[in-house]
């Protein structure tokens, strides 16, 4: 399984300078990173040095140079590459909302929910077949889903071991990170399909 080596567990991240990311957006990402570092012996520190950071986060549109073009609203939400690439790109065209705003626009996309999912990929996790998991490959529109499930925790502990301060109550178990259900979806990272019917869902990778 891909993972960050033992010599790189204190990771830095930076935002694409051209985005001029707000303090509120930075706070959302800080919270998303913390959800993972609370479980495993990893730290994430924001830096301004985009060229020399471990993880690069940016909002882009269309063809942005990585061979995986974004396709506008309701298309691909985001994509992230496994270690040690450290790239997390989000589609700037989406209707992103911050924590607490999701209920006012049910078709909007909760930024922290996407960030937590994509950070899981950055750490080496694939998709899970557990519907309660962050790494499950679908989510309802207007849904906020940011708490790690036991399946997410088990996968992370398998890769990195436990944070000494982690107070988990379940014994970690080995579970598949890339489920057959996930493989049966379209091979796009966090690819999104809107099913225009009552109770439509978002599918993503």
Automatic annotation (TrEMBL):
Ca(2+) 3 binds at residues 71-72, 74, 91, 94. Its cofactor is Zn(2+); Ca(2+). Zn(2+) 2 binds at residues 117, 121, 127, 135. Zn(2+) 1 binds at residues 64, 66, 79, 89. It comes from the Eukaryota. Binds 2 Zn(2+) ions per subunit. Can bind about 5 Ca(2+) ions per subunit. Residues 1-162 form the Peptidase metallopeptidase domain. PANTHER family: MATRIX METALLOPROTEINASE (PTHR10201), METALLOENDOPROTEINASE 5-MMP (PTHR10201:SF272). This is Peptidase metallopeptidase domain-containing protein.
